[in-house]
Amino acid sequence: MTRMEMEEGGSRGARRRGCTFQKNDFFPEESFKSWGSYGIALRETPWKFKNRVMTRSKDETEVVEMKGRSSNEMKKTLNSWDLIWFGIGAVIGSGIFVITGLEARDAAGPAVVLSYVVSGISALLSVFCYTEFAVEIPVAGGSFAYLRVELGDFVAFIAAGNILLEYVIGGAAISRSWTSYFATLCNHHPDEFRIIIPNVNPDYGHLDPIAVVVLIAIATLAMVSTKASSLFNNIATIVHCLVIVFIIVAGLINANPQNLTPFTPFGVRGVFKASAVLFFAFIGFDAVATMAEETKNPARDIPIGLVGSMTITTLVYCLLSLTLCLVQSYKDIDVDAPFSVAFHAVGWDWAKYIVALGALKGMTTVLLVTIVGESRYLTHISRTHMMPPWFGLVDDKTGTPVNATIAMLTVTSVIAFFTNFRVLSSLLSISTLLIFMLVAVALLVRRYYSSGVTTKANQVKLIVCLVLIFGSSCGVSAYWANSDGIIGYVICVPLWLLGTGGLWLGVPMAKTPKLWGVPLVPWLPALSIFINIFLLGSIDVASYIRFGVWTALLLVYYAFVGLHASYDAAKELKSASSNTTTNQLDQDLNMLEQGVQSQNISTT
């Protein structure tokens, strides 16, 4: 038995509790055994990098072996209704009560409802892709596990870093908005509840202690029990839905159709620019995919939970954004608490308290699901040793990833304490769109490529088609961002159709889903790739600079730590599997020999 296996096996035997430490909890791999070992590992970096780029995980590895590294099993307590309520609770609140006002006033005007339609369609396409993977690979790792299986460790790691960034920034942004609505409920300006540091950039100098307290309280609930979190979420979401019905009805009573004129004051470009940022409103659903490991019947419950909650959410977003623009002119919308201030503007002062209370409940459930989702992502990433395995431990008593929850809570709280919401939202959308695009690519690879099944000729066709789909999508996005003409679309759109049609007609499928599959493959995944890349072209340059800095930091960490740790862990896993196979063969041979000896004795 290998050294890491002995340590992990010992952990399972001891029934580990959260926040306990043992020797080699953080760097048990051979590369970090000594400075000499680390020096050798660094010299082997190019070869290891090639191995990690080319290596693919397997479904059974993610579902069985990776889960075994968490010391304890997560408890299977969730059904389809829990997932629907988690989905609604995760999404409604993060967008409609946070950034709708900002995008309606500064980017799209009343046409923000169309921005939600575009974002909703793209999110629904991504939901289909996530659902097939979550049913086939029901683990806590979500898109990280899916990408490891289809696109390899390196792509999965880059996605993992952006997944964690997505959740950290999302939680920080929503917790700061929680403070804004709480201030409205108390008849105060949000900055009155923050600590203002003079002569410091307001994007980073308005400190928010309330956001930190809210995060700690919700994370505590998430650590106690997943089922308790689900029950709290269900009750809070029902109350939240009643408030939404009230907002729509009361808003229509006070509607002024003149407020919809002009409908597109910033033009079509403004509609898509807002759509890119409003993707922030749909990040919650991928957190529901991370709960597959705790779902009683993934094949039935996940499709109902994911597709059902996203359809309801998109409809609600469109109705609420339209209601906001009917009640108040887009020029007068308040960016901190748009719905509460809108009712105040029409003389319904009492209504703003109901709206603020509903918004707080909505954002509370969003934060709950965000914390649950991000901790499960970190848990599965740590199972591969790309992050220290201590973060992947599951608490014996609660059946929840306590270590990962505390780690993510700490980082989210620090960012929420310092950073302005406007800085956070655009950077978040880049990470979200990138991950959704990669999952769609991974689904096409899953359907059309299988080692030992797909011929070399079909592999070449698949690569050419994917390059055409990806390249033409990038071309449309770049042309949209830099030109008002049509020549770019005349060139790129036919290339996209050629790539997708070529995949459909010219490459035979290598795999078919066993339980639930995305319809209209390759058209729906290819369309998801196109829309996600197109929306990426509408995000500002400053956000891309921040994104580039973050990606550079990820690459540095991967080159010096993550690459060597994950390579050693994969090597040990392969060795353990070989030993298991050898032991099984020895047992079979011994049984055969005993049978032959018994037969010889009886013959004698």
UniProtKB/TrEMBL annotation:
<keyword id="KW-0813">Transport</keyword>
<dbReference type="Pfam" id="PF13906">
    <property type="entry name" value="AA_permease_C"/>
</dbReference>
<keyword id="KW-0029">Amino-acid transport</keyword>
<feature type="transmembrane region" description="Helical">
    <location>
        <begin position="274"/>
        <end position="292"/>
    </location>
</feature>
<feature type="transmembrane region" description="Helical">
    <location>
        <begin position="427"/>
        <end position="448"/>
    </location>
</feature>
<dbReference type="GO" id="GO:0015189">
    <property type="term" value="F:L-lysine transmembrane transporter activity"/>
</dbReference>
<comment type="similarity">
    <text>Belongs to the amino acid-polyamine-organocation (APC) superfamily. Cationic amino acid transporter (CAT) (TC 2.A.3.3) family.</text>
</comment>
<feature type="transmembrane region" description="Helical">
    <location>
        <begin position="545"/>
        <end position="565"/>
    </location>
</feature>
<dbReference type="GO" id="GO:0005313">
    <property type="term" value="F:L-glutamate transmembrane transporter activity"/>
</dbReference>
<feature type="transmembrane region" description="Helical">
    <location>
        <begin position="460"/>
        <end position="480"/>
    </location>
</feature>
<dbReference type="Pfam" id="PF13520">
    <property type="entry name" value="AA_permease_2"/>
</dbReference>
<feature type="transmembrane region" description="Helical">
    <location>
        <begin position="151"/>
        <end position="174"/>
    </location>
</feature>
<dbReference type="GO" id="GO:0005886">
    <property type="term" value="C:plasma membrane"/>
</dbReference>
<feature type="transmembrane region" description="Helical">
    <location>
        <begin position="519"/>
        <end position="539"/>
    </location>
</feature>
<feature type="transmembrane region" description="Helical">
    <location>
        <begin position="207"/>
        <end position="224"/>
    </location>
</feature>
<feature type="transmembrane region" description="Helical">
    <location>
        <begin position="231"/>
        <end position="254"/>
    </location>
</feature>
<feature type="transmembrane region" description="Helical">
    <location>
        <begin position="108"/>
        <end position="130"/>
    </location>
</feature>
<keyword id="KW-0472">Membrane</keyword>
<feature type="transmembrane region" description="Helical">
    <location>
        <begin position="402"/>
        <end position="421"/>
    </location>
</feature>
<keyword id="KW-1133">Transmembrane helix</keyword>
<dbReference type="InterPro" id="IPR002293">
    <property type="entry name" value="AA/rel_permease1"/>
</dbReference>
<feature type="transmembrane region" description="Helical">
    <location>
        <begin position="486"/>
        <end position="507"/>
    </location>
</feature>
<keyword id="KW-0812">Transmembrane</keyword>
<feature type="transmembrane region" description="Helical">
    <location>
        <begin position="304"/>
        <end position="330"/>
    </location>
</feature>
<feature type="transmembrane region" description="Helical">
    <location>
        <begin position="350"/>
        <end position="373"/>
    </location>
</feature>
<feature type="domain" description="Cationic amino acid transporter C-terminal">
    <location>
        <begin position="516"/>
        <end position="566"/>
    </location>
</feature>
<feature type="transmembrane region" description="Helical">
    <location>
        <begin position="83"/>
        <end position="102"/>
    </location>
</feature>
<dbReference type="InterPro" id="IPR029485">
    <property type="entry name" value="CAT_C"/>
</dbReference>
<protein>
    <submittedName>
        <fullName>Cationic amino acid transporter 1</fullName>
    </submittedName>
</protein>
